[in-house]
Amino acid sequence: MFGTLQNYLSGIQRSWSAADGDSLASFISLKDKHIMNRNLYVESPENIVERILDPPIDEIVSAHLKVLYYLGMEKRDFMQAYRQQSQCIQSVVKMLQQLKDENWCLPIMYTTCLDLRILAQKCEELGSSSKPGEILEKAADCLMSCFRVCAADNRSSDDDTKRLGMLNLVNQLFKVYFRINKLHLCKPLIRAIDSSTFKDSFPLPEQITYKYFVGRKAMFDSDYKSADEFLSFALRNCPRNFPRNKRLILIYLVPVKMLLGYLPKKQNLERFDLLQFHELAVALKEGNVRKFDEVIQRHEIFFIKCGIYLLVEKLKFIVYRNLFKRVYNIKQTHQLDLSAFQAALQFVGETDMSIDETHCIVANLIFEGKIKGYISYSHNKLVVSKQNPFPPLNTVS
């Protein structure tokens, strides 16, 4: 740890002269051990910093030292720290613009942007703004200023281009937009990455994070096949020594898979403490509406907290589909009286189900392609196809 401010600044100048981006990033990271050194808590460090450091790194370091000052106060001032970190990002943008045809400085951008997002989140948690999400939204504007510089760097060679930093920033922006529930702002970022020549050569950890968020967005857009593809990529490539991350991916992948007709194995769910989905799968397979409702009610808080309650509710139509398939297998006829479906629904817990509501459920299942057939209203019957009247869910478009 640096004993004095001068030693700390001298170390930064050496790293700057050597164009050592990783070393410089640690010097200005709020996760590095130097933040515990009270000698660095300086309210107005500009004079000494400018004497030792070259521009543009001097402005970045001055802002960082002010952040340390506000975080090191007896009563920490997170809002002032956030403001200084925002100033730090503005100086990083200047640095990116000045260092043309060079990208060794990208780690500095990654670190300062991460710290800005974390500080913004802390301010939101403390209620530092009267309007929820306002601070994070302003933080996203700062991150976008870095993104624009990176995305516009078309003249540099592939090895030196700042476009290699785009995905890291996109992932930071995704985390903000998902937190403030502004998913529509993800669309232009997704287009930028999908059209990038580097989309398959970004670091694998960044690709995993990207696919996780894009998969979640596809899920909310009801594009379940794309959600399955993206989330499966994230799960497949997530290292084994990150079980918490694997669990996060599975929380969204499992219900998506279930909507596509794939039921999870109990041992896999047990391994990641997600047996809530096993109970759902059992009810789904049996076509047991009562059991399905009981599972949802029992684990309601979990589903709401994870943001998948409405998604899980959509599984109810698969429960209906499986129940009606059982009725079809018992009756062994292609002309099924709708009152038989009504009786089945009442038997499994929908005690006040009317014939009109039964019609509505069957019509929706036909519309979604889960049943092949049509309703004969004059005869109050469901006439199903003689070939594959209940197609496998994974073939339903």
Structure, explained:
This protein has 397 residues and is mainly α. Helix content is 63%, strand content 3%. The chain folds into 3 domains: 5-176; 203-314, no CATH class; 321-395, Arc Repressor Mutant, subunit A, CATH 1.10.10. Helix 7 runs antiparallel to helix 8 (166-179). The longest helix is centred in the N-terminal third of the chain and has 21 residues, at 78-98.
The main sheet comes to: 3 strands, antiparallel
Number of strands: 3
Tally of helical segments: 20
> Can you give the helix content as a percent range?
55-70%
How is the largest sheet built, in terms of strand order?
A: 1-3-2
| Beta-strand residue percentage | under 5%
- Given as residue ranges, the uncertain stretches (5+ residues, pLDDT < 50) are none
- The tally of domains stands at 3
**What string, H for helix and E for strand, traces the elements in order?**
HHHHHHHHHHHHHHHHHHEHHEE
Structure characteristics:
single chain, 397 residues, mainly alpha, Arc Repressor Mutant, subunit A, 3 domains, three-stranded antiparallel sheet, 20 helices, 63% helix, 3% strand
Secondary structure elements and pairings:
Elements: H1 5-17, H2 21-27, H3 46-52, H4 57-72, H5 78-98, H6 106-125, H7 134-151, H8 166-179, H9 186-194, H10 204-220, H11 224-237, H12 243-259, H13 266-271, H14 275-286, H15 289-298, H16 300-305, H17 309-314, H18 316-331, E1 335-337, H19 338-347, H20 355-367, E2 373-376, E3 381-384
Antiparallel strand pairs: 1-3, 2-3
